[in-house]
Amino acid sequence: MSTSIKKINSSELIALAVHGDAFVYRSKRGIALIDGGGSSAKLGKKLAQELPAVEHLDVVVCTHADQDHANGLKSVIADWRTARRGQVSIGEFWLPGRWMDVVKRGVKDPKSLMSDLIHALDEGKLDETRLLLWTDTDEGDDNGDIPRRLARLFSTSGSSIEFDHVSRNANEPIEVENQALAEGDTQSSFSKPHPSEGEFNQDFQEPFEPDWLRAIRERKASVIDERDATHIFQSTRRRVVYRMGHHPHLRARNLPKTVGTSDATGRYCLALIDAAEAIVSIAKQAIVEGVPIRWFDQELYADTLRARGGQPNFLLPMNSVELRSTPTAVALPVLYYLSLSKANRESLAFYAPAETGCHGVVFCADTRLGTGRGGKTPFQVYPSMAKSDQIGTAPHHGAESAARAYSFATRFGITHWVCAANGRTKPGRSFQKIAKNQRCCTACPLKVGPFSTIKLSLSSNAFALPTTCSCP
């Protein structure tokens, strides 16, 4: 842990003004960065400006591959080092477990990965995957049949596909059991028994590292050059844009109108490329800089609704299980689309337990604090949440698509919300209904400019939002 943190009298939450989610959590136990906004250069400058005495981050978390969360972490060490004009370091990266196979292939051979994507686009495979996976409706969420529908789709091209790891129906009985409680809760939020934080983290160990990743670290020099990788991703984008303007292949396949336009599928394909580039860049950075990676798997959590792993008393998962072995393999390209699509609803969420005399923090990322169809089954509730008030990070920048999270607030003891604006997503009605003295936003005119960093002391005695929220 960073030695400079021991000088802090109470924990602190900082929402950096970087056009997207980038939260710094400081406590006596360590310092963590949760997401990085949309630009590594901006993030590096903000870290140097707002934390001039800090040269080490114990944990850096990337919750999912959306650009306004992940892009700021693509070269965070180099850009922070440049902005600070001195040495900096990171203790661990925490990444989604479903990225593991994308990292395995993308770090070694991104050209082949992108070629497969273009091939799938030309064959029309992305038309259906876009409809299956790229949706903002509740009805399509967490549909256990989606992986098997993709299996049938890709089996026609001769792909070898296994779905032991991806197809998950085990949580359905649990969802039915909790549905009434989620919709009309007459019980206390904490009346259901839960194991202690200690039980959840009794197997805390050093980060698990797959054999293939260890081998890549040992052959660091063979990792593809960053400039070459950038060229590969840019070239693939140009190929997609060309196809968006020249699409006789759509008419030739006699696709139904429900498939959508070539522009829509092209935009979906470009989003996949953006996500892949962010994932590969973050992983390569960890390899080159010698930073260990912890992997957090959401599918394993969906089986039992019991989160495990993380660092005790510092940062705990709410909707995932830290991997201690390599999950059952799912052959590309299917895992590729499952890994990179539905990013908002599939992000990781974490909890920073309250220190004595302080508030805790619930890092929602873009989740609705619930899993299952429509997000109706709440995430992990830790016992200490009943003993302290929590500060929540507004999910999906306050957008209405994550409105269910606010209805779960009392379950997790969330009393106040901090919103990190991204310049595009507007706060929805549910966020606006929260009392103005219980919310604040980096887009509110606190100091100067369109975005302002928010610093909050989490001490119960000193806690106060910097101003009442002026979001419409």
From TrEMBL:
<dbReference type="InterPro" id="IPR001279">
    <property type="entry name" value="Metallo-B-lactamas"/>
</dbReference>
<feature type="domain" description="Metallo-beta-lactamase">
    <location>
        <begin position="19"/>
        <end position="118"/>
    </location>
</feature>
<dbReference type="Pfam" id="PF00753">
    <property type="entry name" value="Lactamase_B"/>
</dbReference>
<dbReference type="InterPro" id="IPR036866">
    <property type="entry name" value="RibonucZ/Hydroxyglut_hydro"/>
</dbReference>
<feature type="region of interest" description="Disordered">
    <location>
        <begin position="184"/>
        <end position="204"/>
    </location>
</feature>
<protein>
    <submittedName>
        <fullName>MBL fold metallo-hydrolase</fullName>
    </submittedName>
</protein>
